[in-house]
Task: inverse folding
């Protein structure tokens, strides 16, 4: 990690408050990352099972939370008083060039959260998809307005050789969508996000995990989910009876711009 901070947790106090932590009770952190949320739960006496599918995360269990019930049963965490999901990528994943998640770091276009078990990389998707498939992907998972011209530019560019590096893809996108002065984010943000969601099949994992999480909760137990994408939030909202939405304060967004799109919802069994 080169002494870098692994990840700054978002909505930390809000998540703790909604989890209603009771000392000596068991909790599951499905997205351990660098353990920011877990440490805060432990600090007030909770006993936490930390899960992350990324082998670089110092989590206790390395597995996809799509298999949450099996993981929890094996670890003796059934029933539990609370479950947390803080979806998406960690800063560590984004900032480690070789993982190929970032348009700011030139590296092989990879984006697999678990390279040991996943075989399809972002480069595979970019080089194999038809123009139409790519445009649909960028619209659906990235809400990218210029999906079609970007997909066209990708197909044209790869006719002279495969697109293998993050920078190659970022440059193709920049030729279609020049950075305007008013743009808060890099023009490649949405396409990279769409590829990451597809490579890691993130929405299917969430859909699989939510009902298992509810089964694992004791009566009165709480499930708290932090999401960063409207499709994730739609899945969560449709699943939860209580649709209370909690968003970061202006101060938090100022201190940690990644919090800007964070939304938190909770469910009580
Ligand atoms: C936003 S980070 C979590 C940060 C963490 N709360 C902290 O304070 O450091 C999301 C983490 O979830 C992991 N993750 C994403 N999808 C997953 C899945 N389906 N199963 C297990 N871990 C997953 C990622 O590898 C990443 O480390």
Result:
């Amino acid at each position: 990690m080169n002494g870098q901070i692994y990840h700054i947790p978002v909505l930390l106090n809000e998540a703790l408050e909604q989890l209603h932590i009771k000392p000596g009770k068991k909790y599951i952190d499905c997205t351990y990352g660098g353990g920011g949320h877990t440490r805060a739960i432990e600090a007030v006496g909770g006993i936490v099972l930390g899960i992350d599918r990324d082998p670089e995360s110092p989590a206790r269990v390395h597995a996809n939370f799509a298999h949450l019930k099996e993981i929890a049963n094996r670890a003796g965490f059934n029933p539990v008083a609370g479950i947390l999901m803080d979806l998406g990528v960690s800063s560590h994943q984004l900032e480690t060039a070789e993982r190929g998640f970032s348009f700011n770091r030139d590296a092989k276009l990879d984006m697999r959260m678990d390279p040991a078990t996943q075989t399809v990389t972002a480069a595979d998707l970019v080089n194999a998809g038809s123009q139409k498939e790519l445009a649909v992907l960028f619209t659906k998972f990235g809400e990218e307005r210029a999906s079609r011209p970007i997909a066209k530019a990708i197909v044209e560019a790869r006719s002279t050789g495969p697109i293998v590096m993050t920078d190659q893809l970022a440059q193709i996108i920049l030729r279609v969508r020049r950075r305007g002065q008013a743009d808060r984010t890099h023009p490649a943000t949405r396409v990279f996000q769409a590829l990451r969601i597809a490579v890691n099949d993130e929405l299917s994992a969430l859909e699989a995990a939510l009902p298992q999480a509810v089964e694992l909760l004791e009566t009165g137990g709480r499930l708290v989910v932090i999401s960063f994408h409207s499709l994730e939030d739609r899945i969560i909202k449709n699943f939860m009876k209580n649709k209370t939405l909690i968003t970061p304060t202006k101060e938090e967004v100022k201190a940690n711009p990644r919090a800007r799109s964070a939304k938190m919802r909770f469910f009580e069994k």
Remarks:
- Residues 6-7, 9, 31, 33-37, 51-54, 57, 64-66, 86, 88-90, 113, 202, 205 surround S-adenosylmethionine (CB under 6 Å).
- Strands lie at 26-29, 47-50, 80-86, 217-227, 263-268.
- The radius of gyration is 19 Å.
